[in-house]
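Q: Here's a chain of 280 amino acids. Please give me its 3D structure as tokens.
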Amino acid sequence: MNARVPPSCVELETKKHGLSKVGWVWINRPYDGNTIDRLTAQEIIRAVGAFAKDAQVRAIVLAARGDSFSRGIEVQWLRSQAEAPINGALEDARKLAQLLQVLAECEKPTIARVQGDAAGIGAGLAAACDICIAADHACFTMGDDRLGMAPSVITPHLVRAIGARQCQRYFQTNEPLTAARACALGLAHETVPAELLDDKLTALLASLLLGDVHAQHSANKLIRAIAAAPPALDMTADAVRIGARMRAFPSVRERLGLQAERRSPAMHRITLDSQRCEAD
């Protein structure tokens, strides 16, 4: 009797739109709310990279099977990060940062198809894509208040999407955003009834594919350059360090069901070397 082969955590699909092709990356973990673990992150990175190199693919859609877009990071992966040495936790945090960066910096247009809940890294995935279309019942949450963790790795992308002022509120309160509120803040570009989500994507892609490839790429590069100036302060490295260190916080370990570690207060002190406040 053959052993059952587990379903792939990420599925790739290429669809024809007129004379062009669109690459679809499907997160396929509906049984777990499409949470992101190490393997899923690696597979999405690999899939986006493959489509980015395919000359026949004009755009990339990030979608998910089931009812949820992504309910955040998979708990077992978080537990392993909390028990890992700081270097191991940093490596995992960098993997999550890379996942968001490959979407945000892709040379081809990226579109998030948010058909359900997007929490933590799920909201980060939506923010990292160039365009986000959401079902009107979708719900966005910046972090996971059950674990007592701030949304560190997704911060650069959420700040770019909704601004620092809004992040100051929602990162601390973790209030859920309805699709309408997410649209008003700029996290989603448009919301539609769930049954019309794919019709909207088809119309959007038709418009997108009419554009010139080189003009779209140049426009995206220009937007990123203007948004980063002046002067650009890349907070990704700081966000990665903060996220990795949070895994070892006693309160986080307790919520993850792990024993607290004995560490000196200095081990839990977080500083942003790139930001210093000086009194007048």
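Q: Can you summarize the key feature?
A: The first strand starts at residue 10 and ends at 17.
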